Fold these 3 entries.
Entry 1:
Amino acid sequence: MASREEVTVGEDEVRSRYGYLEKMTDLVAVWEVALSDGVHKIEFEHGTTSGKRVVYVNGKEEIRKQWMFKLVGKETFTVGASKTKATIRIDAVGGFAYEYTLEINGKSLKEYMESRSKTTNTWVLSLGGTDYRVVLEKDTMDVWCNGQKIETAGEFVEDGTETHFSLGDHSCYIKAVSSGKQNEGIIHTLIVDDREIPEAVE
């Protein structure tokens, strides 16, 4: 008869083996925030029995608090290269139900994205098998590509301005012309290799 071998498993081993499972059960909210340097994923874990709060930005842990006796409140952190202020608000909505709200620079995510669409233009394109996300910040005329601010050269032309830069070996420029309508303002168009790129909606 084969002898029965006793197996002892250390607490850490059990924790690591089931850690991912525990992590998923407390995940209560996921948001995607489009900033000039890219789209950032924010995940929030809230243990309603332990009061645990964990914030991840792009998969990296930013905040971890264990055993919080107050289950409502807020957590503030920064997102992206520009260190944009983000706050997760935790509000009780009766019984043991909670509502989680993400605020960016003091505005709800929806309000922030609406105001951002007025101050930035975004284009998503593929060139030679490489994907590019180009963002123009209209107030500063800074151009970002795939998370990096890039070198540009501005030039006045007959009907407006052109901001020149390159993506790999492709010549690009953003043309800014007046719409002629007061409420529309200036229209920005991305031209790559003499081809107009449609604006992306984020």
Entry 2:
Amino acid sequence: MLSLLYQEGPSTEGIFRRSGSAKTCKELKEKLDSGAEVDLACESIFVTASLFKDFLRNIPGSILSSQLCDKWVSVMDQGNNEEKIKSIQRLIEQLPRANVVLLRYIFGVLHGIEMRSEENQMNAFNLAICIAPSLLWPPVSSTPDVESEFAKKISSLVQFLTENCCRIFGEEITSLFGEI
């Protein structure tokens, strides 16, 4: 999925913003969940993007860990960019290794899409609005006002992560997928 998103996402206007066919997504998810072979290259890239966001939303406790939710939310309240980056790196060190590996690939994809935002209309802000709700959610539900404020903070965090991914994860993030 990520490889396809890395290949096609940068040249696809509205990637992650537009949804794939709900029926197709449901059918493909059922096939994937049953272990059947699925060739996503034959599907719309919007279906792949929708399936990927659904996958992220189904990670127990979220990929960024709902247990660290308060710490993630407070990162953007820190001083300068250097302090934010250091705080983010400390939080990443607290995540399970599998989460960190997946995050690197996710932000490698987002970086590639952002680099061609004039073509695809998906700058870091737009990507964050679409992806942030799939990366972290509060451990307990709350009022709509609190959830709205939370969504803004997490979107701001994901925008910052996207814009600074090379400094946070290392320059090699741009070549994780090799020459495709």
Entry 3:
Amino acid sequence: VIATMRDLRKKEKLEEAAGPALGKTLSIQRLDVCSDSSVAECLGSIPGGHVDVLVNNAGVGHVGPVESISVEEMKRIFETNFFGVVRMIKAILPDMKRRQSGHIVVVSSVMGLQGIIFNDVYAASKFAVEGFCESLAVQLLQFNV
């Protein structure tokens, strides 16, 4: 099992939770879902090169009225919450399809189904994830993914 995080300086709590599995059946690696090169580097370091289960859990939020957030900040939220999911799935999907095996788990939010006041951009990014995954799930049935 490989646990990943964008900033390894924050790994202490994860290491504590891992207990004796750390270094044996669990390793912690750097992965920034907003970076193609980081994704490629992390996936390239996997022994055997196969991902059997991908759990997409990266996410960022913003609370406040829409006029308080810049378009650049909105793009950053979408880059992590939506394009990060897309980037990871695109990276592992060809091998899963070829092997006709694999599982993709995407952690989303109730705000991907219903917007909540002052969470406009976050909700929009999660709605995008929901639509993407619903469409993809139908396509991937034929590949046993």
